[in-house]
Fold this protein.
Amino acid sequence: MRVKHKKWADPLIAAHPEMMVDNAPELKGKWQSRFVKKQPLHLEVGMGKGQFIIGMAKAHPEINFIGLEIQRTVAAIALKKALEEELPNLQLICGDGEDLQEYFEPGEVAKMYLNFSDPWPKKRHAKRRLTYKTFLATYEKILQAQGIIELKTDNMGLFEFSLESMNNYGMRFDGVWLDLHHSEENEHNIETEYEQKFAAKGQPIYKLIANFK
Ligand code: SAH
């Protein structure tokens, strides 16, 4: 997702420390203090403009959600949308998925979502894919023992890579879907911005759920 830098992004982020965390390491091990209720914590890495994480927070008041985005302007767009809602179970972070171990204590997160992550199709960029083994090792640390990862993408290359990488890492799969939108799994599906765009063009959406047990 490429967006033009917006001048209002930094001031908006600075004006809403209650909703968007700009210095995530400060809250390591203390994320529950940011929410009204202490309940399981779900994290999306690469939330984009936030449609999915906001939709999830609305649909699941019994879960605390955190959306993480690296691009400041994109994060600020998500923040703007989140501010239009009143969601005591949602927090946003402007930060880098590579630094998750600096943001979260081991076991602090119950579930993670990777939606339409950048595919990095060139072989020499494989290490940047969010399902490369180094990222998986990070997820394993911050996730609780029963923790799971849910991934959705339209990109077959990234999907194949992720299946292989997770399998080689020793992860187990709870489910794999090659056409999510025409499956029973779609019943409670919350769509992301990219998902809507690609599905409208008739592209199948791939999904997997995996764990580290
Ligand atoms: N999940 C959204 C956006 C997908 S595009 C959707 O499905 O519509 C992928 C997003 O991941 C981009 O906004 C990009 O900036 C973000 N991203 C890529 N690498 C990241 C990283 N290391 N940490 C956090 N966000 C990242």
Observations:
- Strands lie at 20-21, 41-45, 64-69, 90-94, 109-115, 143-153, 172-177, 206-211.
- Residues 25 and 103 are 4 Å apart (CA to CA).
- Residues 1, 45-48, 68-71, 74, 96-98, 115-118, 192-195 surround S-adenosyl-L-homocysteine (CB under 6 Å).
